[in-house]
Design brief:
The complex is a heterodimer of chains A (391) and B (137).
Chain A lengths: L7 E11 L6 H16 L8 E5 L3 H4 L6 H7 L8 E4 L5 H14 L5 E9 L5 H9 L4 H4 L6 H14 L5 H15 L13 H5 L3 E3 L2 E2 L8 E9 L10 E10 L10 H13 L8 E3 L7 H8 L8 H6 L10 E2 L4 H4 L4 H17 L12 E11 L2 E12 L5
Parallel strand pairs in A: 2-3, 2-4, 9-10, 9-11
Antiparallel strand pairs in A: 1-7, 4-7, 5-6, 8-12, 11-12
Chain B lengths: L17 E2 L4 E7 L5 E2 L14 E5 L3 E10 L10 E8 L4 E6 L10 E7 L8 E5 L10
Parallel strand pairs in B: 7-9
Antiparallel strand pairs in B: 1-2, 2-3, 2-4, 5-6, 5-8, 6-7, 8-9
The chains are: A alpha/beta (391), B mainly beta (137).
Chain lengths: 391, 137
């Protein structure tokens, strides 16, 4: 039974992810914002608050402050409260959660949530340094510790315990690229063979280049509103949004993703078996396998079996990352959480085109950012529901 | 909970991180619950107590996982190896790993090695054959 105070995602929009050297942050954001407003059937003057996410414009563009207001200027949004959100790669979902709380608190009726990132700046080392600042730099600065290495280390534990095989890592990457080949918003739109994935350039062993998300430009936006802004299509309600921060795990204590998922399931009154489609934070495609377990989609040790059963492919019992995920759809950090929400909203409405996975009713997004103590520094699990029955 | 001792904690830049004599990391241990941390904290993350003492840690630990990195970074020629180590008395630390035989499986016993004063990285770990245990591969 849904809680009537839970708001709706009434519109979504994206700027295609990829390499866009001629587009500024404003240009990327404009396309996503206009898309979301148009999808919701409203104009800029209907927006009474904005939550704006970006991770690295301070370092990469020099726009350390008022990133939201400066981007919104181009689309004529002023006066209303603008909250600038930074939570590393989890900024987009964090902005969505805060918008949800603002509506539930009665502080706003119609909120624009946007995320934008421009990582191609012609200086790869600068972008990598910006990414490395998603950790406590007083502790790990200078180590050369990129997210690729963090994921590689998480995966090695499973490989050495015999819970995963290299072939599992390859197969889930092939799935990721196959899904993205169907997505007009994706950065990498070419399917890849198992051989191409296995023989790719080594990045952080056992990860090869095709397994890893890339530097990326892009933007995504959503409209969160107290009531649906349109009545001519299925309404999508935000059933849960559970945010937490990283911590030093005590022994076998569950991960932050498990902790967030547990809270989100409780808030939504559902369980992992009820989820029909999910977008998870696979900054490296094989990370998807770790999240199967952490989000409860399979029993501990069951990730390989779940993958090989086909259940997580498009059309399967629980399609995971039909968009291609971070690895292949792309990971424009501050925008990623909202790209997940866009994909899931399209899936729930039946508007995902060639990527449409059956007739989903419940969708889950998991978006993580940065890291502390070996854990994500921020994690958000969001549950969306299509309220109307499918015809 | 008495928090005022946290106001008297040394400035973060003045808290020792290494002990060159004992050749080990130095962090904090909570007097109340025993939780350890590297680098030292002002207040315990586990129980919230501000009664923390400076603590030198064991020079031995367990390499929980690692990866060989092929992406160059300023001052770091690939390939280099990064790992996550749990020292015997508590703290969990990301560090460089050296002299690790190819194909090594984790967990693996390691010991800390300190670089020269001012070196980057300041320390790393290497495999350590303990009595009765097999090191290396």
């Amino acid at each position: 039974m849904s809680d009537r105070t839970q708001p709706f995602v009434s519109g979504v929009g994206m700027h295609p992810f990829g390499r866009h050297p001629d587009a500024s942050l404003k240009d990327l954001a404009r396309v996503a914002i206009v898309g979301a407003l148009g999808d919701a059937g409203i104009g800029v003057k209907d927006v009474d608050a904005v939550y704006s996410a970006n991770a690295m414009a301070g370092i990469l563009q020099g726009q350390e402050q008022i990133r939201g207001q400066s981007v919104l200027r181009d689309v004529g949004i002023d006066r209303v409260p603008v909250v600038n959100v930074e939570n590393a790669c989890a900024g987009g979902s964090t902005a969505l959660r805060e918008a949800t709380l603002a509506v539930r608190a009665g502080a706003a009726e119609t909120v624009l949530v946007c995320g934008f990132e421009k990582m191609f700046v012609g200086d790869r080392d600068l972008t990598l340094s910006a990414l490395e600042s998603a950790a406590d730099i007083e502790i790990v600065g200078g180590l050369g510790l990129q997210f690729t290495a963090i994921y590689a280390m998480r995966l090695r534990k499973q490989l050495d315990q015999g819970l995963l095989e290299l072939d599992d890592l390859i197969e889930v990457t092939v799935k990721s690229h196959r899904n993205a080949s169907l997505n007009p918003y994706a950065q990498f739109r070419k399917a890849m063979s198992a051989e191409e994935v296995r023989d790719g350039r080594p990045i952080a062993e056992p990860l090869t280049l095709p397994m890893c998300s890339s530097i990326c430009d892009g933007a995504a936006a959503a409209i969160v509103s107290r009531e649906p802004t349109r009545t001519d299509r299925p309404a999508i309600r935000v059933r849960a949004a559970a945010l937490a921060s990283g911590f030093a795990r005590d022994g076998d204590e569950p991960s932050i993703a498990t902790a967030c998922a547990t809270r989100a399931y409780e808030e939504a009154g559902v369980g992992p078996a009820d989820i029909d489609v999910a977008e998870v934070h696979d900054a490296m495609a094989p990370g998807e396998l770790l999240y199967y377990e952490q989000l409860g989609f399979c029993e501990p040790g069951g990730a390989s079996e779940l993958l090989h059963s086909g259940a997580t492919a498009i059309g399967g019992r629980i399609a995971v990352n039909p968009s291609g995920g971070l690895c292949s759809r792309g990971h424009a950090t501050g925008a990623t959480g909202l790209a997940q929400i866009s994909e899931l909203t399209w899936q729930l409405r039946g508007e995902a085109g060639e990527r449409q996975s059956g007739r989903p009713r419940l969708a889950l997004a998991q978006n993580s950012g940065g890291w502390v103590e070996g854990e994500s520094a921020a994690c958000n699990v969001i549950v969306l529901e299509r309220e109307a029955a499918w015809n | 909970m008495e928090l005022t001792p946290a106001l008297e904690a040394p400035l973060t830049g003045e808290r020792p991180r290494l002990d060159r004599e004992q050749e080990c990391l130095v962090g904090s241990r909570c007097d109340a619950c025993g939780a350890t941390s590297w680098p030292a904290r002002a207040i315990c993350n586990r129980c919230g107590s501000a009664a923390l003492a400076e603590q030198p840690f064991s020079h031995l630990g367990s390499l929980l996982t690692y990866t060989q990195v092929w992406v160059p970074r300023p001052g770091l020629e690939p390939p280099f190896t990064l790992g996550q180590v749990e020292f015997d008395d508590g703290p969990l630390v990301f560090t460089h790993v050296r002299n690790l035989p190819e194909g090594s499986r984790v967990p693996l016993p390691v010991q800390i090695v300190l670089g020269e004063e001012g070196a980057v990285p300041a320390f790393w770990v290497e495999p350590h054959a303990r009595a009765g245990e097999e090191g290396g591969s």
